[in-house]
Design a protein that fits this description.
Largest sheet: 4 strands, antiparallel
Radius of gyration: 16 Å
Number of helices: 4
CATH architecture of the domain at 18-111: 2-Layer Sandwich
CATH class of the domain at 18-111: Alpha Beta
Number of strands: 6
CATH topology of the domain at 18-111: Alpha-Beta Plaits
Order of helices and strands: EEEHHEEHEH
Structural class: alpha+beta
Oligomer: single chain
Strand content: 25-35%
Shape: globular
Strand order of the largest sheet: 2-3-5-4
Length: about 140
């Protein structure tokens, strides 16, 4: 849900899900999940660098009990990579869950809310059927 900040100033911000600013892919190796996060453009990347920290991602995935979350910035690609250790229930051969490879974790990351300027929110890509597409 888009949440306007108090006031109608040009500095007003809205909360949008991360998928409005970036796309993501996931990979796995043993009990480690690797999540790439690629911004749509430089302005979106700047928001990611500021708000999508390793601490915030660790908190967002707290239900998976990560042992450690490390963020790697790849500024030339306007992307970042997160390594989440200990989140795959032992890895593919040990996990009894339905997503032993952790492929759905990238989609969960994309639900992370971030604050953007109202001006930026207006130009972000629309998602068909998304209640936020007119934010």
């Amino acid at each position: 849900m888009t949440t306007p900040s108090p006031g109608n100033s040009p500095a007003a911000t809205v909360s949008v899900p991360l998928y409005r600013l970036a796309h993501s892919r996931s990979g796995d190796k043993g009990n480690i999940s690797n999540l790439s996060l690629i911004a749509w453009d430089k302005e979106c990347y700047d928001v990611l660098v500021e708000q999508v920290t390793d601490a915030r991602v660790a908190q967002w995935f707290d239900y998976r009990h990560p042992a450690r979350v490390t963020r790697y910035e790849i500024a030339t690609l306007q992307a970042m990579n997160f390594v989440l250790e200990g989140v795959l229930d032992g890895g593919v051969n040990d996990a009894l869950n339905l997503d032993a490879h952790g492929k759905s974790l990238s989609f969960h990351l994309l639900d992370l809310p971030v604050e953007v300027s109202a001006k930026l929110a207006q130009r972000l890509p629309n998602v068909p059927g998304d209640a936020l597409s007119n934010a």
